[in-house]
Design a protein that fits this description.
alpha+beta, flat, 4 helices
């Protein structure tokens, strides 16, 4: 039986054309290339025309929407769009004069008592040691909040500002500023006093 199987295999290899394996390999490569190009076209269709980046931040001031609402910021080649709920606001790039991140540091003092210090002091030196070991100490707590500030000229030619809190989205805000500096190199204004 084994010999019969070997003879059948040798007959099949004799009948097996030499051009078939390269044809199979070429077919697989073509299918992969077609699949990749379809995925690329699908991704291009899912991105609106000209969209360069998208981020989300809390609105602080400057837009006609409520404070602390999450706002989607879409950056295009020629404009910025701000979306919150059903409100969509467009700001042309040629009106933007500056973009920067400002940081507000708040320092709070918090009273902290040491329970462990009171126990250790009480065991070592009695009642007076517990009072001294557990005394209230103050501890400074620093909280940093980062804001994205967009400066632009409004319809009357005056400077106006839009502010977003970007503490949780600092990397994306930095990319938006880098993109602004790259695309708006001649957007500066001159003010004569």
């Amino acid at each position: 039986m084994f010999i019969y199987a070997m003879k059948a295999a040798s007959q099949q290899s004799a009948n097996f054309p030499e051009w078939l394996p390269p044809l199979i390999i070429i077919t697989i490569i073509v299918l992969i290339i077609v699949g990749v190009s379809k995925n690329k076209k699908k991704n291009e269709k899912s991105k609106p025309n000209g969209l360069t980046m998208r981020m989300s931040a809390k609105h602080v001031n400057g837009l006609p929407i409520a404070e602390n609402l999450n706002c989607e910021i879409n950056s295009y080649d020629d404009r910025l769009e701000f979306k919150s709920g059903t409100t969509n606001i467009k700001l042309p790039r040629n009106k933007i004069t500056d973009m920067c991140i400002k940081t507000d540091v708040e320092i709070q003092k918090q009273a902290v008592s040491s329970v462990g210090g009171a126990i250790a002091g009480g065991l070592t030196f009695g009642r007076l040691g517990a009072i001294i070991g557990g005394r209230v100490k103050t501890k400074d707590i620093r909280t940093a909040t980062h804001y994205l500030i967009i400066t632009y000229t409004d319809s009357s030619g005056k400077l106006a500002y839009i502010g977003f809190e970007v503490t949780n989205n600092l990397t994306a805000a930095g990319k938006l500023i880098t993109e602004f500096k790259k695309l708006n190199s001649t957007s500066g204004i001159q003010i004569n006093l």
